[in-house]
Amino acid sequence: CINQSAMDSVKMEKAEKYLSDHKIRPVFEYLTAHIIKTRPSHPLDAMILSLQELKANGLDGKKKPTVIFVLGGPGAGKGTNCQKLVQEYGFVHLSAGDLLRAAKQTDSDEGRLIAECIKNGDIVPGHITISLLKQAMNKDLDAIYLIDGFPREIKQGIEFERDITPCRFVLFFECDEDILVKRLLKRGETSNRTDDNEESIKKRLATYHNQSLPVIDYFDCYDKVKKINSAGTMDEVWDNVKKSVSSLL
Ligand code: C5P
Ligand code: MG
Fold it and tell me: More exposed terminus of the chain, fewer Cβ within 10 Å: N or C?
């Protein structure tokens, strides 16, 4: 009898550890409470339904939008292909860079800080970018958002997923650096961007290697990264994008 109770307590400890290690205690408690309260005649079906609801709305009951992060080096084709995905699938495209370029126009310390970061290829503090994204996403919670050029560093990704919602998956545009440089210099002839010049491009690529590439490894650990070869022509890259996205939806 003593052995039995010792064994039970070991089992209990293991179960407790499992719940806290896998951070599923709140989900487990929510589901159990729901079943106790509603006493459904098919508890397993009811649990599956409430799990689906939970996935869509989160534990706080608020509906969350669907998010796809679009990452890759500068000039890898993120913006161009996001626009095509908008036409093909009706997604909503939010470019973190575009939101920051619009915000830098304001005559404020924050506007000046953003302008300085962009010119130097540095990363704007995450809370600024996240708040711009949040404002833009609040407009439609039913949309599927393509968030282009974000997160630029692991910290931003963790903060976004904690405060807004976990991403569904990450589209990663892979391309060699010499091709990126050629594309950016070409774009610089007409883009009017303060950072499409040789000096800024060098800094942007350094930031990309040091801070942004580790984001891919981070999401890879969760098996969320879909790599897309973006070294070819526009049509070739678009073909690769379509194949990847249709296999994920
Ligand atoms: O993505 P895009 O090339 O438009 O970004 C331009 C610049 O905007 C980046 O080099 C960086 O200075 C800033 N940016 C940022 N954080 C992001 C996205 C862009 O600081 N998440
Ligand atoms: Mg872009």
Answer: N
Q: Please identify, by atom number, the ligand 1 atom nearest to the C-alpha of residue 101.
A: 8
Could you tell me how many residues make up the chain? 249
pTM for the whole structure: 0.79
Instruction: Write phi, then psi, for 168 (nearest 5 degrees).
Output: -75, -50
- Which residue CA neighbors atom 8 of ligand 1 most closely? 97
Kindly provide the b/e burial profile for residues 19-29, where b requires at least 16 CB atoms within 10 angstroms of the residue's own CB.
eeeeeeeebee
**Exposure on the CB side of residue 42, measured as CA atoms within 13 A:** 5
Q: By the 8 A CB rule, do 58 and 166 touch?
A: no
Does position 3 have pLDDT exceeding 80, yes or no? no
Burial 122-137 (b: 16+ CB within 10 A, else e): bbbebebbbebbeebb
Q: By the 8 A CB rule, do 150 and 67 touch?
A: no
The pLDDT value recorded for residue 180 is 98
Which one of the ligands is nearest to 97 CA? 1
Residue 178 tokens, joined: 């010499």
Q: How would you label 34-68 residue by residue, b for 16+ Cβ within 10 Å and e otherwise?
A: beeeeeeeeeeebeeebeeebeeeeeeeeeebebb
Please name the residue whose Cα sits nearest to atom 2 of ligand 1: 97
Angle formed by the axes of helices 177-191 and 198-207, to 10°? 130
Please return the burial class of 230, using the count of CB atoms within 10 Å of its CB with bins 0-12, 13-18 and 19+: buried
Question: Does ligand 1 lie within 6 Å of residue 70's CB atom?
Answer: no
Amino acid at 247: S
pLDDT in tens, 53-65: 777 666 667 778 8
